[in-house]
Amino acid sequence: MRILRNLKLTLLCLFGSSALYAQQTNITPVPVDVVYVDADALDIDCALKLYVDRALSSDDAEHLVAALERGDIDFKVVKRPASRMYLNLLIDNEVSANEGYRLVVASEGVTIAASTPAGLFYGIQSLNQMAAGAETLPCVEIEDYPRFSYRGVLIDISRHFRTKEFIMRQIDMMAQMKMNRLHLHLTDAAGWRIEIDTYPALCSYAAWRTPATWKEWWYGDRKYVEEGSEGAYGGYLTKEEARELVEYASERYVTIIPEIEMPGHSDEVLAAYPHLKCTTMPEHQGDLCVGKEATFHMMQAILDEIIEIFPSEYIHIGGDEAGKSSWSECLDCQRRMRQEGLTDVDELQSYMIHRIEEYLNSKGRQIIGWDEILQGGLAPNATVMSWRGEEGGREAAAMGHNVVMSPHGYCYIDAPQDAPQTQPESIGGYLPLRKVYSYEPIPETMSEDVARYILGVQANLWAEFIFEDDHYEMMLWPRAIAVAEIGWSQPEDRCYDEFHRRALIVVERMQQAGYKPFDLKNEIGDRPESLQPVEHLAVGKSVSYIAPSFYYAPKYAAAGDATLTDGLRGTWTYADSRWQGFLGRGGVDVIIDMGEVTPIRSIAADFMQICGPGVFMPCLVEISASTDGENYEMLATIEHEVVWDELPSYKSFGWAGDAEARYIRYKAYRSSFSGFLFVDEIIVR
Ligand code: ACM
Ligand code: ZN
Description:
By secondary structure, this protein is of the alpha/beta class. 27% of the residues lie in helices and 25% in strands.
């Protein structure tokens, strides 16, 4: 029997057939092609005879044997390929795709062939997944290779330091999911995290603060303290530890890309070495002075040490979110701009990135930076990591620059992954596994010529609010698995329901191995109200907005004037084009025209509160009704004490009773918290 997996996948998506599930290999990310050869199976209850191709270096051979040891297959190493119960790892240049592999399970044994050691490693990952807890392996022929060469995760150890051991655990899991780039965010205002000999205060001072929690520190005085002083919170990787990490990762075919932020996000550098500040500097300004040569001396010396530790071709130089405000006042920056003929501060930033690129290129390395490095002109060989959406990525690719896609709306997994009121405080709107998985790195409108510059995709886990390691793991997994599958699998093979079924298996195995992934099995999922349209008397009725100052904000217009009576309820997030956001002093003040005098039993609308981004409940709601549009009768006055809360909440403000009305006025007042009111629908029954 030969069943092509693509056909099976289609059937699974259409019918969710459990008969078809029974024969699944359950490999994640889903392989390119799986052919079930016959109904036979290979018994793996006694040891397989492992033959490792002599063409492999002894290091690679060792790493591959170690990878097998991490799985459930029992094996012993033999000198020549066996004829029965074999497990052959073969270098075969006919398996052309870099990192690709062919895995054949026959009733006599297993062969994994690849043209690269990394390919063999990924074949082993697939085999380990098939063998997990199994006594037999189905006879299959798998051809598999990655869609993208870059499949990454960003781990932020600046906001809260994490140990080498913690990072190693995540590398292990990344490698199982065939991810190959770990972007380590090593430096940021919250702490410098890598030992640098030439500038020792980066570790003895800039790596330590006293308030451990982000908010106390960030909204407090943002001070640093000496290492070893009372209450000092922080840490850094020694060079020795960083080298161990590099080695550990490379044994799993993962490259660590170090990020050294410049010119922005460098508050901690300036705290330790204030001579790099601009001549005038506002408080809490974290940009290096680009006018001073000392800045370049220091950054280049740091990069010299970084490239000595990290063999990665790419060095991430940050480049994001520089405030640039001090540069227009600074005498040194101004002099630099005059001397170099730079017309604005964007060009000054670009000047710095160009110089740093030239420096790193001269050492045989390439730069990668956040998409702001496009501002003022992109350095000639730079790769762009597109985070503020995909626009930067598209622009860079169109100019022939390599791009890694990591748009915040899909890849910023510091956002809550389930009903936000059930999740720890975090940044951003609801970002469930399904939404991450729906991301497509190559926009439909992009031509093939441009698309070839898209190297891949990356999940970013920023850590401002993530204090505990377990919490970090919970945020990372399983959403990073979705990114792994986006990076590896073919787009036509992606099906969320099928992925979800396999993700549950991965999560369960992770739990058995002591990881703390998000408990996907008990996911609440989308806001129930948002799943289907709501029927009520006001659907499709016209809404007039009373005063211009009460109008909704253009960015959160949702469906414009139709929003509040379109029958569509919002999701957990206000950025879903269903919630309408009201800024301005007034609040919400609208009149629904029912078209004719109508008997009415209830009027209600939901509001949400997410204090972090400034979304609050109203402090007062007035609901009134009129038959003639002139004389209104107050139906309800609802007071509400708005209090700051870390967790999001959703609340209905309504009236129930008996009335007749053609016009319904719904008025919600903002509390003393400045910020938004968000409302999705005014439901009239
Ligand atoms: C970023 O999130 N500022 C890259
Ligand atoms: Zn300056």
